[in-house]
Design goal:
Elements: H1 2-17, H2 24-58, H3 64-85, H4 89-111, H5 116-132, H6 135-157, H7 176-276, H8 279-302, E1 308-312, H9 313-323, H10 325-331, E2 334-337, E3 344-348, H11 349-368, E4 377-385, E5 388-395, H12 402-405, H13 426-437, E6 441-447, E7 451-458
Parallel strand pairs: 2-4
Antiparallel strand pairs: 1-3, 4-5, 5-7, 6-7
Helix pairs in contact: 2-3, 2-4, 2-7, 3-4, 4-5, 4-6, 5-6, 5-7, 7-8, 9-11, 11-13
Length: 464
C-alpha cells in the first residue's frame, strides 16, 4: 500500500508544489505559496461539495448565490495556482494578497470595522506579505491596512456608509467559530511553512560554513606542507649551488695562477719555433693559443665582459672537434665536421665554442653507450638558411626518451647517473647562450633506434 501511495504523492508534489525558482530564496517563497494555495484549494473543494450537496439534495435554505460564490472562490484559487506553476509565483502572490485585502475590506464595510474576522484577515495580509514577498513589503502592507481601517472607521462613524451590526446582538453558535478557526489555521500554516524553510536554510548555511571551515583548514595545511616542500627544495638548490660557488672561487684563482706560466710557455715556444721550425711545436703553440683565448674569456666572464667579434663558424667547429679528438678516440667514435662554406658569424666566440663543445661531448658520450653502433660517428654540419646559420649535430647513440625531452633544458636536470658525469647545467647554459647571445633557437629530435639530432639556428649579435 505504501509503495503505491508514495509515487502518487510524489507525482502530486511535482505537479502542484515543487518550486521552479532560480535561487534558494525564491524557491522557498514559491514552495510556501504553492503549499498554501493547494491547502486552500482542498478546503474550497470540500466547501463546494458540501454546498452542492446541501443545495441539490438536502435543500436546507441554501440559495444558488452561495453555490456560485463558493465556486468562484474555488476557481480563483485554482487560477492562482496555475499562474504560479506557469513560472510567475510573485505575480500570483501579489494577486493572492490583494484578494485577501479586498475580502477583509468587504467584511469591514458590510458588517463594521469591529468585525473580528475582518481584523484577522487584515493581520493575515500583513503576515503573508512578509512571508511570500519581502520584509519591506510587509511594512507597506501594514501601512495600507492601517489606512484602510482608518478610512472605513471614518465613513462608518460619519454615517456615510452604514454596516450591518445586528450580528452583535445575535446569540453565539459553534458555526461562528468556523471563520476564526479557518483564519487561525491559515496563519499557523503560513508561520509553520516559513519557519520550516528558514530552519532548513539555516541548517544549510551552517553546513556550508562547516564545509568552508574544513576546506580552509585543509587549505592551510596544504599551504604549510607546500611551504615546507619549497623550503626543502630551496635548501637542496642552495646545497647544489654551494659547489659552484667553490668552483668559482677556485676558478678565479686558477685563471690568475695559470695565465702567467702559460704566457711564458707561449713565448718560449715562439722562440723555439723560430729556431727549429717544427710542425709539432707549431701544433703545441696553436693549442696554447687556444687555451690563452679561454683564459682571457674566463677572465672577462668573471668581470662580466663579452668578447664580441666576427669569427668563422667552420674554423671554430673544427677546433672544437680537434679538442675532443682524444675523448672521441677513447670512446671509439669519430667526429666528422663536414666541409662548409665560408660562414661568418658575429658574437661571443668563446660562448660559441662552449655550447658546441657541450653538444659534441654529449653526442660522443651517447655514442659511447651503444654496445655495437652501426655508424660510430658524430656528424656536424653548418649551412645558411634565410640569412641564419644552421648547425646540426647528429649522433647514432642511445637516444633520449620522450619523457626526458620535455625537461632536457631545465637547470639541474640530468639523466646521467652520477654527479661526476654531469650536474644538469650544460644543456641549460647551451640554451641560454643560443637564445640570448646568438638570438637563435635550439631543437632536438631523438629516436632510440636512430640516435639524436640537435639543430641550432643562430642569428648572431647585431654589429655596432
Amino acid at each position: 500500500m505504501k509503495t503505491s501511495v508514495r509515487p502518487f504523492l510524489q507525482n502530486l508534489y511535482l505537479l502542484f508544489i515543487k518550486p521552479q525558482g532560480s535561487d534558494a530564496d525564491s524557491r522557498r517563497r514559491e514552495f510556501i505559496l504553492n503549499t498554501l494555495l493547494c491547502g486552500l484549494l482542498v478546503i474550497a473543494s470540500i466547501a463546494l461539495l458540501f454546498t452542492l450537496f446541501d443545495f441539490f439534495v438536502i435543500h436546507i435554505g441554501h440559495r444558488i448565490d452561495s453555490v456560485w460564490h463558493t465556486f468562484v472562490f474555488w476557481l480563483a484559487v485554482l487560477a492562482l495556482l496555475a499562474v504560479s506553476r506557469r513560472g510567475k509565483p510573485r505575480v500570483a502572490a501579489f494577486i493572492f494578497i490583494g484578494f485577501l485585502f479586498l475580502s477583509a475590506v468587504q467584511f469591514a464595510l458590510a458588517w463594521g470595522f469591529r468585525l473580528a474576522q475582518a481584523e484577522l484577515v487584515f493581520a493575515l495580509v500583513i503576515v503573508i506579505a512578509g512571508v511570500l514577498l519581502t520584509a519591506p513589503l510587509a511594512l507597506v502592507a501594514s501601512l495600507v491596512v492601517a489606512a484602510a481601517l482608518l478610512v472605513i472607521t471614518f465613513i462608518q462613524i460619519r454615517g456615510i456608509q452604514v454596516p450591518l451590526t445586528d450580528w452583535e446582538q445575535q446569540q453565539y453558535h459553534y458555526v461562528d467559530a468556523v471563520g476564526y478557526i479557518a483564519i487561525f489555521i491559515v496563519i499557523g500554516l503560513v508561520s509553520w511553512l516559513s519557519n520550516r524553510e528558514a530552519d532548513r536554510s539555516l541548517k544549510r548555511a551552517r553546513r556550508s560554513e562547516a564545509d568552508l571551515q574544513k576546506e580552509r583548514d585543509n587549505l592551510e595545511a596544504k599551504v604549510i606542507e607546500r611551504t615546507h616542500e619549497l623550503e626543502e627544495l630551496q635548501l637542496a638548490r642552495l646545497l647544489e649551488m654551494q659547489p659552484f660557488a667553490e668552483f668559482g672561487r677556485i676558478g678565479a684563482s686558477l685563471v690568475h695562477e695559470i695565465a702567467n706560466p702559460l704566457t711564458a710557455a707561449s713565448l718560449h715556444l715562439e722562440e723555439l719555433n723560430r729556431q727549429q721550425h717544427s710542425e709539432l711545436v707549431r701544433q703545441v703553440q696553436r693549442n696554447l693559443h687556444h687555451l690563452e683565448r679561454y683564459l682571457v674569456a674566463a677572465r672577462k666572464q668573471i668581470k662580466r665582459e663579452s668578447d664580441l667579434r666576427v669569427f668563422s663558424v667552420g674554423s671554430e667547429l673544427r677546433q672544437v672537434a680537434h679538442l675532443l679528438t682524444h675523448r672521441a678516440r677513447k670512446a671509439g667514435v669519430r667526429v666528422v665536421v663536414e666541409k662548409t662554406a665560408n660562414i661568418k658569424l658575429y658574437g661571443d666566440v668563446v660562448k660559441f665554442n662552449q655550447l658546441t663543445a657541450n653538444l659534441l661531448a654529449n653526442a660522443v658520450e651517447a655514442s659511447d653507450k651503444v654496445a655495437s653502433p652501426a655508424r660510430p660517428e658524430v656528424v656536424v654540419r653548418a649551412y645558411t638558411k634565410d640569412r641564419d646559420t644552421v648547425i646540426t649535430i647528429t649522433d647514432h647513440g642511445v637516444g633520449i626518451s620522450p619523457q626526458n625531452i620535455d625537461r632536457l633544458f631545465e637547470p639541474f636536470y640530468s639523466t646521467k647517473s652520477s654527479v661526476r658525469s654531469g650536474l644538469g647545467l650544460g644543456l641549460s647554459l647551451t640554451k641560454q647562450y643560443v637564445e640570448h647571445d646568438f638570438r637563435g633557437s635550439i631543437n632536438v629530435a631523438s629516436n632510440p633506434e636512430t640516435g639524436t639530432v640537435f639543430t641550432l639556428r643562430l642569428r648572431g649579435q647585431e654589429r655596432p
